[in-house]
Records
---
Amino acid sequence: MQDASLEPPLQPFDLGRRLAAEALGTALLLAVVIGSGIMGERLAGGNVALALLGNTLATGAGLVVLITIFGPLSGAHFNPAVTLVFALRREIGVREALAYVLVQLASAMLGVQAAHAMFAEPLLQVSAKLRDGPAQAFSEFVATFGLVAAILGAVKFRPNATPTIVGLYVTSAYWFTASTSFANPAVTVARSFSDTFAGIAPVSAPAFIAAQLAGAAAASALFGWLLNPRTSPCPTRSLSPSSTTPAAELRATRSP
């Protein structure tokens, strides 16, 4: 049996347990993202690169752990864009997908508040950090496209390594995208309610979310084709009574 992955759950857990796994995993993911951002900024002494590095490493490592733990339970989506992809692939039902998304959105908010509580921050906040412009939106398209590509490729070829592959991809995407790779609508919404290092102003969120969903849909379509070639059967040579076989041809050449 395959180990943890982002595909639909491999064990027959009931929907309640699957939703609980999604809730716990998404909440913990947001606690990691927001909490490590606060810690990084406090310890970096104004060095934004150092703060981002701390935020990056904590998020990547946290994802590996969370996907390993919750993957066999719920598929460890933690992300409406990922759930959308599996719904498009008809690997999760529409009602289940909607339930996943609602749980992801609600639990992401709880994770943000948990991080605020741990660092004695006001629980309810609204971010003032603008992340506007076409470059930021395009970065989110690329980040989410790459995330879905990493997931689908890992599930197809290296399912046991999926947690590590996803964690490494997110770690790299923090640094090669101008937006620092949110790549997750639930994360984007929740981070708009944190006026901390990892926050995003609510006015910037719609463009991020639209780009994320577009990137996920594009990757689903492309990799649905790329990873599932339709092989045609090898053509067979007709051996009708009038056909001449190689052996018959050889005998004919030797005949007087």
Note: The first helix runs from residue 15 to 43.
---
Amino acid sequence: MPSDNFLTKRLLPATLATLATFLSFTVYAHDGSSVGETASIKTEVYSPKSTGVRKLTLGTQEIKMLVDKSNLGSTEIEVGELFLPAGFQGTGDHQHENLEIFYVIEGTLGHEVNGKLYRLEVGDVGIVKAGDTVNHSVLSESSMRALVIWTPGKESAVLINRFNFSEKAME
């Protein structure tokens, strides 16, 4: 299993740097002073540290929202930690309006995109483009955890309003 150091020092910064090439925004420090190049979208004051802002649940599916508008100050991206229990048989075919990227941290994710099943092991990345049909299941005997990145953000609202996830503040 990749170390937390790998996730925070290499994967997340590399992913955000790649996404930044597709996005146009200004980076601001938590006090509101600009620390990056100014572009077309300005962000609000943000929280530089978070252990998560809220949990979304639907049955046995759980998503711990790590980054969203409430701590980022803008909606360019949302990041969540997805948990699916062993034996989870699938989310059912569905579509998203945004790019969705999965990075498997634990277990094995069945990642079916447009009818083709991919087996995502620890360290694998899965991609779903807007409009693709997707279904997820757990293929391992143990539970599955993955980092999920949505860009642009606002996917949590879709999960709540369209897919009926419930929302609870982090304690």
Note: The mean pLDDT is 82.
---
Amino acid sequence: MLLANETVAEYLDTSPVPGLFRVHERPDPLKVQKFEEFVATLGHSLSVPADMVRPRHFQALLTRIDGTPEERPIAVLMLRTMQKARYAPANLGHFGLAFSSYTHFTSPIRRYPDLVVHRLLRAARRGAMTAVEREETAESLPEVARHTSERERRADEAERELAQWKKVRFMRDKVGEEFDGYVTGVASFGLFIELVEHFVEGLVHISTMADDYYRFLDSTHTLRGENTRKVYRLGDRVRVIVAKVDLDKRQVELALADIARSMRSAAPKREARPEKAASRVSPPKGPARRRPPVRKRQRPGKNARGRRRG
């Protein structure tokens, strides 16, 4: 598949017919520099300046950290350092695949850009496109590239939203249970944890980390306790408790198990207070009141003896 996409992209790049390419540009040097600072704290390096980095440098780093404890955090941050792939009428190469030319060609029945590439390839091979048609196609391709890239992002967002709703729904009956997880994100407001068993991501809010005051260090992507010097960083394996599941917000709230247990054990136990017996107030004594006799009303038209009046 990759070879077919690369071959078609090279053919369109050298033909007079305009082309639609799948491009993945080089990462921002500023992001690469921040990534280099992070991996340096773990004893690794790209061994190249940020503005001269190539795909082989990232690949060499992945090879060196294969099977090590720091493999997961470095791989997670490496993906976030990269640019997002998109469609473009100009051939800018594909950094992630280390291809000088690349396009999407193999799936015309499910992706519109592939269908556009099929039409362009057919026109290039037959030589049936006139100069006017080439000019009109070249003018329309930037909008096609922008629109298809935007739709792709929206489709990905919808897919992630649906998957997240399914995951939250799956976790709604697991409140109070403990799971193992990895730290996939560190922010000033807490830790993002992905459960190992179910691949569900939740948030440990910093307000639940009440055993210390944690300070966020952006350069190292860590939360560090000021008193205990405890550090949470990307890729750390932790034990968490499912604290709350919110279907409306599609959120799973977690708590670090060791902190939750320590806070429960440190909480003072409340002594049960004896319930006071309800005091019964006796009614005041006094002379009993007699109820007035109930008189029966006679029916109209009858005398005292029950006879009708003449």
Note: The chain has two domains: 2-168, 178-266.
---
Amino acid sequence: MALDAHTAADVGNQLIELKDQAVAATKRGDEPFLRVKPEETTMNILSSHDGTTIAYDKQGEGPALILVDGALTVHSSGSGSELAKLLAPHFTVYGFDRRGRAESGDTLPYAVDREIDDIEALIDRAGGSAFLYGHSSGGPLAMRAAIRLGSKVSKIAMYEPPYNNDPGAQESWSQYLRQLREALAEGRRGDAVALFMRFVGTPAEQIDGMRRAPFWPGMEAVAPTLAYDHAAILGEPWSVPTELAARVSVPALVMAGDASLPFMPDAARVLSQVIPQGQLRMLEGQTHEVNPGVLAPVLVEFFTS
């Protein structure tokens, strides 16, 4: 069942970057998920606590900073490489394919604690402590990791964790999760991705074009991770988990763009207020697709202060 335009716009703001890249690639006829990786980085492998292989790279020199991607994002495809390059003069920057994506493995059944185990394994590889930065749904995962891992996480930063405190949005979110679970349980990975694309406001004809494009199998391959991010990490209700956030014991920077849809800055504001050492930073002119050149100096200032 299709969502109305207002709901689609609201839900979709959490992955506008993905939609824009996919639509542009459809028009060009090329592949957004297999961008060439920077020559100065190579993927390494470590074993997480349950034996799952996690692919990661690192660059730079300084305190460890781990980048935690959001929904459907594949680090080894080149995602985040520009941000990592800007941060590398100040930190040893670790990026990784979250479990179930590209070069990393997966072990069922999924559990959020297993993703936190992956982050802990990276922190141990980095020397035992690290900063965490999470974009979109990577932010709530970073927050949960900071709560569980204690002193291993020194500070966290999040850009637009995609919570929505609007009571009117909760039923739409529940409907999306039900349909997502059904599609994945029946092995309809393409339909699961298409469902999400409808949420991001992509017109039906563009979704049809994407399904015929060379990059579509790559999207289907990571479709199960939509449930990881949305059903497990964000969960229900879709609103800011104030009791959970109040357990964050480290300094936390919560950011949002002032050009995003209103629910994003509102959620960031609430989250920054309930985290004991939380602070809010609004980035002028930024949407969910934040400019790395704007974001990097803010992260450097926060993590080095």
Note: The first strand starts at residue 44 and ends at 47.
